[in-house]
Write a structure and sequence with these properties.
With about 375 residues, the chain is α/β, with parallel strands linked by helices. The protein has eleven helices and 14 strands. It binds flavin mononucleotide (FMN).
């Protein structure tokens, strides 16, 4: 075996860290990954979910796939929810196994807002901040389908949505999770409200940046209630780019600066930041793009997007992030922490099974070979 491989102590990623009330034995976080394996009418997690998360219990923290807070939140087929009794009971089996194997797991709470489609909503129009088509694609039973012009959410719709998040957070607690994470990335409900190109409201939830971020801050307060502590993470993607609606510029970045500073005054366990996309796979992520938020947010920060072992250790060593999350590497390497610790090669995932299929490409990625020092 090579003697040049880094020892675990030399790797900042393998040192313990606290994120709010969560105590992690290492800083290698499993990023949320929608895998669309809840192929049943009730959108209930199955034995496959138990195996998938159990296999990855050595992560410092697992963040589940985005999980629907209500039927109104749905915008992708076969994604599980956390709004029914059956779903809560099934998630309990997942958290029990992860805990029995020594892990920690938080539930990501998701609502797609205007990025849904009548096919997901029993024929009804999706609702968003304003009647503006986000021009996204949504995956329905017919395949990728273009979004439509949604209806504008009423004040009652907004109150009901905040209540859905609160109920989902309570359900997550009942299901044995260690906390929840608010899904605030991509083109979905929360970034739609933050975005002046999609939010044309003139009430308390639109008009200026402070009003556009009000929904998120109300959701933070609502989901924190059942936890009574710092167990709520917030995930944001200020650099998200898609179509003509999400294009970061000085104005939108300034709005995110204010939002992140404001989060210091709310019960947030950690900020989970998706940084700028790398130009090509294997390129070094832009550390400055993450450091911008490190300067603004006083609490723990998880960095994401395009990291490997070397750049993950470097961003923690530089004091820019407290932990690093990995999505695609955790899909193909259930024992990612062991591979980092032992300096092993990483396997590549099969993209064809990322968002569809059953056990194949989900729970059948092998562990690395411990004895011979080669990748499994
Ligand atoms: C298959 C797949 C599913 C994803 N699902 C989610 C999700 O449910 N919630 C979320 O916030 N991000 C989701 N993401 C984004 C990832 O968490 C992450 O930001 C992205 O893959 C970049 O990280 P990486 O370079 O470590 O893969 C998903 C990404 C992939 C590849």
């Amino acid at each position: 075996m090579s003697t040049t491989r880094p020892t675990t102590l030399a790797q900042p990623l393998l040192r313990p860290v606290g994120l709010g009330d969560l105590e992690l034995p290492n800083r290698v976080v499993m990023a949320p990954t929608t895998r669309a394996r809840a192929a049943n009418d009730g959108l209930v997690p199955t034995d496959l979910h138990v195996a998938y998360y159990g296999q990855r219990a050595s992560a410092g923290l697992i963040v589940t796939e985005g999980t629907w807070v209500s039927e109104r939140a749905i915008g992708f087929i076969n994604v599980p929810g956390v709004y029914s009794e059956q779903q809560v009971a099934a998630w309990r089996r997942v958290t029990d196994v992860v805990h029995a194997l020594g892990g920690r797991i938080v539930q990501q709470l998701w609502h797609v807002g205007a990025a849904s489609h009548p096919d997901h909503l029993g024929g009804e129009l999706p609702a968003g901040p304003s009647a503006v088509n986000p021009h996204e694609m949504t995956f329905t039973r017919r395949g990728f389908t273009a979004t439509v012009t949604p209806r504008e959410m009423t004040a009652e719709d907004i109150a009901a949505t905040v209540a859905d998040y609160r109920a989902a957070a309570r359900n997550a607690r009942e299901a044995g999770f260690d906390g929840v994470e608010i899904h605030g990335i991509g083109p979905y409900l929360i970034p739609q409200f933050l975005n002046p190109r999609l939010n044309h409201r003139t009430d308390a939830y639109g008009g200026d940046a402070a009003r556009r971020r009000r929904l998120l801050l109300e959701i933070v307060g609502a989901v924190a209630e059942p936890w009574g502590g710092r167990c709520v993470g917030v995930r944001l993607s200020p650099y998200w780019t898609s179509g003509d609606r999400f294009a970061p510029d000085e104005r939108t970045l300034a709005d995110y600066d204010e939002l992140v500073s404001e989060l210091n005054h709310h019960p947030v366990a950690y900020l989970h930041l998706r940084g700028r996309d790398v130009a090509a796979p294997g390129d070094r992520p832009d550390f400055d793009a993450i450091a911008r938020y490190r300067r603004l947010f006083d609490g723990p920060l998880i960095a994401n997007n395009g990291f490997d072992r070397e750049t993950g250790n470097a961003v923690v060593e530089a004091g820019i992030a407290d932990a690093v999350s990995y999505a695609t590497h955790f899909i193909a390497n259930p024992d990612l922490v062991a591979r980092f610790a032992m300096g092993r090669e990483l396997a590549c995932g099969d993209q064809a099974t990322y968002y569809a299929g059953e056990a194949e490409g989900y729970v059948d990625y092998p562990l690395c070979g411990w004895a011979d020092g080669r990748a499994g």
